UniProtKB/TrEMBL annotation:
The lineage of its organism: Archaea, Methanobacteriati, Methanobacteriota, Stenosarchaea group, Halobacteria. Belongs to the isochorismate synthase family. This is isochorismate synthase. It comes from the Archaea. Residues 168-185 have a biased composition (Basic and acidic residues). SUPFAM superfamilies: ADC synthase (SSF56322).
């Protein structure tokens, strides 16, 4: 019994060494499932393979359960990380709400699932690559971990090296997009008009202030989904976004995307977050882009929709904070859309775990609505599909309880020959169903562009 108890807080052994940077696709393919990739603007890229530890939870207390499990996991460690970015971190995410993973394609996903990679490649944003081997519990033997690291170093040395003369776009271009054989929408235009009209009625009746309604699009692919090439193309096209890839156990499918929306990052007592809501398209010319951006900044409906998010995020941080400050509202321009964006920072009044903030903030009215309970009820009643991890928090946690989480939008679940894409829009009192429909199609673009054989042929453009 004593032994069983000591095993429940197992030691963690982690060893890292610097290596020559391998090519992304070669490293991705060399790692075993479950694979994780995580990359944030101006931060290191992490590729994880296998699981030294897997933490899962479900239900409304899933945030608290993961917080406790990470605290226990990181309690005792023998860690030589070499570089801060290679320190042990668990990577994963949460379901949008409890029960959101009950249907397809979410069944292999858990309502909360975090992995400490068994093997991790860390590539610093200013160059330099590190290989890490982690072990927990019975495997956590220092000399066994060091031997394993030496073997992994040999294995990675044999991979194609990263080649700055062969940029990712050129490499990815040699792996064509799969093409879509057939696609199905969860929501017809008629059903959408009805749902938006019903939501607008509830808002005008004073029952709701805002609700974010989403759709899903299921696409049968004409060829195998090119996993690494897709991630490389997203990295090239969306360098300012958080890019992520999470495989559930089994590795037959993965949830991935490139999101412009940070939920929260915590380092020490410093919190950074974004209010991101209010959307317009991109222009054909720089002048048209500017015109659209200005129109967005001046548009009452979009500003109202945005301010509900910014105010709520500030209010939700208040109870934890010694100070909260919001930057100036501005336009965030992405490859496919433009958004209203307000950066928000806070200093906490006490030490906190990042999951305390994740739990307090999720779902923000950028992906849920206001009041939160009524919005959630409307979402559940209206949407004919499961959100799973779509629009939910994904990110990492370290031993100090620091972490960074993004809102998992501009995302899809992909298996070998199928992808399910998700996109939503904020509905307020003066929302027009057809304009909101068009906005949903725009928000599919980041992922759809990587699936269609020739993106310019798309009827939805
Ligand atoms: C819900 C999504 O996006 C969110 C909704 C936005 C809006 O309604 O303007 C803008 C950015 C995101 O906060 C999505 O992309 O699926």
């Amino acid at each position: 019994m004593e032994q069983a108890r000591s095993r429940s807080s197992p030691p963690l052994v982690s060893r890292t060494t610097e290596i020559d940077e391998p090519a992304f696709a070669a490293a991705f393919d060399a790692l075993s499932s479950p694979r994780t990739t995580w990359s944030a603007p101006d931060d290191a890229l992490v590729l994880g393979g296998g699981a030294a530890a897997t933490l899962t939870a479900s239900g409304t207390d899933r945030f608290a359960a993961i917080r406790e499990a990470t605290t226990e996991l990181f309690e005792a460690g023998d860690v030589h990380a070499g570089t801060e970015a290679a320190r042990p971190r668990v990577f994963g995410g949460f379901a949008f709400h409890e029960g959101a993973c009950d249907g397809d394609p979410w069944k292999p996903f858990s309502e909360a699932r975090f992995v400490l990679p068994r093997v991790q490649l860390t590539v610093a944003d200013d160059g330099g690559a590190w290989l890490t081997v982690n072990a927990v519990g019975d495997d956590a033997d220092v000399s066994a971990v060091e031997d394993r690291l030496a073997r992994e170093v040999d294995r990675f040395a044999a991979l194609d090296a990263a080649d700055p003369a062969d940029p990712p776009t050129d490499r990815a271009a040699r792996s064509p997009r799969p093409g879509i054989r057939e696609s199905r929408r969860t929501t017809s235009r008629a059903a959408w008009r009805e749902s938006v009209a019903a939501a607008v009625d509830r808002i005008r009746d004073g029952d709701l202030r805002k609700v974010v309604l989403a759709q899903a699009l299921e696409a049968d692919l004409a060829a195998d989904f090119p996993r690494a090439a897709t991630l490389e193309r997203l990295a090239e096209k969306y360098p300012d976004c958080h890019r992520y890839w999470f495989e559930p156990a089994g590795g037959e499918s993965a949830f991935f995307g490139a999101t412009p929306e940070r939920l929260v990052s915590l380092r020490g007592r410093t919190v950074e977050t974004d209010a991101l809501a209010g959307t317009t398209g991109r222009g054909e010319t720089p002048a048209e882009d500017e015109w659209l951006a200005q129109e967005l900044l001046d548009d009452e409906k979009n500003v109202h929709e945005h301010e509900l998010v910014a105010e709520t995020v500030r209010d939700q941080l208040e109870p934890f904070a010694a100070s909260v400050s919001a930057g100036e509202r501005r336009v965030r321009r992405l490859a496919t859309v433009q958004h209203l964006h307000t950066p928000i920072t806070a200093e906490l009044d006490a030490d906190r775990h990042v999951l305390d903030l994740v739990e307090a903030l999720h779902p923000t009215p950028a992906v849920g609505g206001l009041p939160p309970d009524r919005a959630l009820e409307t979402i559940r009643e209206t949407e004919p599909f499961d959100r799973g991890w779509y629009a939910a928090p994904v990110g990492w946690i370290d031993a100090a309880g620091n972490g960074a989480f993004a809102v998992a939008i501009r995302s899809a679940v992909a298996s070998r020959r199928r992808a399910t894409l998700f996109a939503g829009v904020g509905i307020v009192s003066d929302s027009d169903p057809d304009r909101e429909w068009d906005e949903v199609q725009l928000k599919y673009r980041p992922i759809l562009d990587e699936l269609e054989a020739d993106a310019s042929d798309s009827p939805d453009r």
